[in-house]
């Protein structure tokens, strides 16, 4: 059986469609102040099987209560944290709420938050998949 070659323009159009349809890694860095007696919630939308890394930079004496509320309503409480890192793979699509609570303090706290979302294609990290 002899295979036919695709025309060049069709090959280029197909390659362009694949590249455009695949999202790149999302990384965000943000800083915000949580005033004494208040709570700040940051929401991120995630899809199933996305790898996520949350990093909070801070000092121990500026610890703040941190917890994540998953789309199904379950809560992962990290307690009072200064600097920390948490990685997870999403098992349900939806909004994940990152909650920073400073209700136990009268001082304001600066939060520097980095989070990264990495997409997977057929179980392979997207960046690796695109280099294959």
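^ Assign residues to that structure.
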């Amino acid at each position: 059986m002899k295979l036919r070659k695709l025309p060049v323009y069709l090959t280029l159009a197909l390659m362009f469609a694949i590249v455009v349809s695949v999202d790149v890694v999302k990384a965000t860095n943000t800083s915000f102040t949580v005033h004494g007696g208040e709570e700040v919630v940051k929401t991120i939308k995630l899809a199933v099987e996305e790898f996520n890394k949350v990093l909070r930079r801070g000092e121990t004496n500026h610890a703040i209560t941190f917890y994540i509320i998953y789309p199904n309503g379950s809560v992962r409480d990290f307690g009072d944290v200064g600097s920390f890192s948490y990685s997870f793979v999403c098992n349900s699509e939806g909004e994940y709420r990152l909650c920073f609570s400073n209700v136990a303090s009268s001082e304001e706290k600066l939060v520097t938050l980095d989070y990264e979302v990495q997409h997977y294609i057929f179980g392979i990290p997207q960046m690796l998949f695109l280099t294959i």
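The helical segments are 8-21, 126-131.
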